[in-house]
Amino acid sequence: MRWYLRQINVVIIFVLLISLLQPGAIVRASISDLPATDYGTFIDVRQTELAPGAMYTWIDLQNERGLQKIHAVEFNPQQGNLELRAGTKDGKVYGMKGVTEMAMYADSPGNRVIAGINGDFYEIPGFVTGVPNGL
Predict the structure, then answer these.
(1) Separation between Cα atoms, residue 91 and residue 46, nearest integer Å
(2) pTM, whole model, 2 decimals?
(3) 43, 34 contact by CB (below 8 A)
(4) H or E stretch covering 40
């Protein structure tokens, strides 16, 4: 009886070890299917739908400068339920505020914020005014 129980334990341990190694083989197979481009080699590409008609894509790309991370939100502005808006600081164009704070200010029932992208640059020599470049 003891011999039988030991054999069952060995089989269970073997199956558990195989199950730990198997996901790594699947990941390596899927990464090898990703294409190389002029910009570099794709390491990982993932997508998720933020809202009907809005897709969020994140990409890990390896090039001569190292690992690059790309985040993009795509949507059709012709679709009536989605629109692109510039974030503001409490309704003002100037001022220093993070993307999360701007999204919380704009988010309200009937006006849901589904994505925010930090895409502006502020000149910060000496006294910080919070006036964005290009305005």
Answers:
(1) 34
(2) 0.57
(3) yes
(4) strand 40-51
